[in-house]
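Ticket 4471: requesting a sanity check on a complex prediction with NAP. Repro inputs:
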Amino acid sequence: MTAPLFPRLTIVGCGLIGSSIARVVREKGVAGEIVIADISEAHRDRITALNLGDRVTGDIGEGVEGADLVIFAVPVLAMGAAMALAAGHLKPGAIITDVGSVKGTVADALMAHAPDDVFVIPGHPIAGTEHSGPDAGFAELFDGRWTILTPLDREDDAYAAAVTKLAEFWQALGAQVEIMDRAHHDLVLAVTSHIPHLIAYNIVGTAADLEGVTEGEVMKYSAGGFRDFTRIAASDPTMWRDIFVANKEAVLEVLGRFTEDLQALQRAIRWGEADKLHDLFTRTRAIRRGVIDLGQESAEPNFGRDRGKH
Ligand code: NAP
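Returned structure tokens:
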């Protein structure tokens, strides 16, 4: 085991993502000490029972004191309030990051409360499942997945060194790291994650509404496609409410384009344009192969769990 990258790490919010970080950091010795701050008493009891940290507290200010790295892993719309509670207690020179699924509004919320003498580097691991809470995490979650860092517009060497160190941290957890502009991140994730979830929520809602008409057959005979949608639509309601509120502009932009394409498909079906349908389905099949070739999905479920991107 090599020397820890950070003497003390504090994780604020220890659900699926926070507890996965705690597990792999401990397993690989990436931090000397792990402190966990979570407002949920029930979660704190589980975190203690699972022995995820060296110290567990419900007081965010106390929890971040003396930490060299602080990771906010709370729902997107809770980031600002959590940072406000931490702000007066942060160690000068500490690296402050987050794992929120939206970057523009989260960076603004963090920066609104951050003192000048810390290094704020927003981030997002593109790894997750539809489960939540401290029991749902697992140490292999980030293995081979991407973590996107969206540094602030700061030119100084000390900030660049902090970005390099945070990238090393994620690499030590098994992730690959990419640096990206915040607005670009939010647009890319709207396409690859947010709109697909919206479609899943919508189709499952539509099917549930049709249950009265189909007398239970939708659920009873649900084929593979619908079953996959129900898994995605089982994702945490708070997390996804926050994502759509926080990434409104990019989501609406992509949704406009999606709606146009859907209408084109509707037209092709109405006019019996079979070749058009076949061409699209051939193109999308090749895209699926590309995703597998890039190692972002395997034919077999990983570790018995789906690690879908969020
Ligand atoms: P989660 O399992 O629900 O965990 C969030 C934890 O934070 C819970 O223990 C929650 O307690 C606690 N919490 C909520 N507000 C808090 C606050 N103000 N201060 C301290 N603790 C607070 O959620 P998650 O799936 O790990 O997601 C956490 C973050 O990661 C979100 O920003 C999400 O966008 C991002 N993310 C999620 C995924 C994914 O697949 N799930 C993937 C990548 C990134 P309560 O339950 O009592 O509220």
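Notes from triage: Residues 298-306 have pLDDT under 50 and may be disordered. Leaving this open until the requester confirms.
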